[in-house]
Specification:
One of its GO terms (molecular function) is 7,8-didemethyl-8-hydroxy-5-deazariboflavin synthase activity. The protein is α/β, with parallel strands linked by helices. The protein is 32% helix and 18% strand. Strands 7-8-9-10-11-12-13 form a 7-stranded mixed sheet. Strands 1, 2, 3, 4, 5 and 6 form a 6-stranded antiparallel sheet that branches.
Length: 358
């Protein structure tokens, strides 16, 4: 693949697909996604990009370079946070409990297992249990552990928001109530810290769990569908595809009612085979309903079924087109990811929407 355009959005899209050559002390491998990334600051904004020794992009001398040419953008790797060097009172390294994302976001997967991880059901872009198998994390994070880590991350490294996601559990709440317990402990330890929670839609008879997350102190919520086309969902997410879109619609509506407009988001992955025009139309329909569509490229992630099959990242030109059109619609609707207060859209490191003004 070759770079797309010379615009800021074009460079941001290219970086998401082509990666960058840099020594990044803050990085992650495997896990729930969206990619194997290094974390850098691009003109001061937290940015997560693949580390690729063959990329035409590099960072040197505090600048972003393309084939050695200075692009006029300040760039530097995010420094290793000090909280990574600490261990909890019960002997678990903080780094195994939560990670720094971007420049000031603390992220954790509170339950690192998923009922949909058997190969027949697994989301093809996800490796949530691979990091657990590698010993890089723990299966379940307790509220007390996360409160301890969050307090240190805020105090030592200036963390300004937190994201809590979870593998799907067997309960009707899909893991929401453990998330609520964790949020309650963190916000008690660090009053005022914005927190986004992420989970599958609770069962229709248990939508009250969404309100419990808000009552626990969550600022925003992500209910991630990844694709809107049912054929794409069945192919890429055979387990999650068993949850009908009607349940997502009900959960999004309840979340908007509880959390408010533009405090609810969903991931939409470019590169799964969904028609770009239909993806843009679906994204903007969600936005009109108060749900921020966080458009992110599919990228091969170590340990996933798709990567094992050799499925590559999308064409940068397609990603740029979808991102630009969705961003234009979001601007018209007055929706910015930053206004979510906490979460993936508020961080923006994994998407080019922020560079496009949304």
């Amino acid at each position: 693949m070759t770079p797309t355009t010379g615009t800021r959005v074009g460079h941001r899209v290219d970086l998401a697909i082509l990666g960058v050559r840099v020594d990044a002390p803050v990085r992650r491998r495997a896990g729930a996604g969206p990619s194997d990334d290094g974390h850098v600051l691009l003109d001061g904004a937290g940015t997560a990009v693949p580390l690729n020794p063959d990329s035409p992009y590099s960072i040197s001398g505090g600048r972003l370079l393309l084939d050695g040419a200075d692009l006029g953008l300040d760039a530097e790797a995010v420094e290793r946070p000090r909280f990574y060097d600490l261990t909890t009172a019960d002997g678990v390294p903080y780094e195994k409990l939560a990670r720094l994302h971007g420049k000031d976001v603390l992220a954790t997967t509170v339950v690192q297992t998923c009922i949909r991880y058997d190969e027949a059901d697994r989301c093809r872009f996800c490796a949530i249990e691979a990091s657990l198998a590698a010993g890089a994390t723990t299966a379940v994070k307790t509220p007390a552990q996360l409160a301890e880590v969050a307090e240190a991350a805020v105090r030592l490294d200036g963390v300004r928001q937190m994201v809590m996601t979870t593998g799907t559990t067997n309960g009707r709440d899909r893991g929401a109530r453990h998330l609520a317990r964790c949020v309650r402990a963190v916000t008690a330890a660090v009053p005022g810290l914005p927190v986004q929670v992420q989970c599958e839609p609770p069962a229709p008879e248990d939508l009250a769990a969404i309100g419990e997350l808000k009552d626990a102190g969550a600022t925003a919520i992500g209910i991630h569908v990844e694709a809107l086309d049912d054929a794409v969902r069945s192919r890429w997410m055979p387990g999650k595809a068993g949850v009908p879109m009607s349940q997502y619609d009900a959960a999004w509506a309840e979340a908007v009612r509880v959390f408010g407009r533009n405090r609810v988001s969903t991931y939409l992955l470019v590169g799964l085979g969904e028609d770009p025009d239909e993806l843009v139309a679906g994204a903007l329909d969600l936005a009109r309903r108060g749900v921020y569509p966080f458009v992110v490229p599919y990228r091969p992630l170590a340990g996933t079924l798709a990567a094992a099959d050799g499925v590559g990242a999308p064409d940068p030109a397609v990603l740029a087109d979808v991102t630009t059109r969705v961003a234009a619609g979001l601007r018209t609707l007055g929706m910015r990811g930053f206004d979510q207060g906490a979460g993936c859209a508020a961080c923006g490191a994994c998407s080019a929407l922020g560079a496009a003004g949304a």
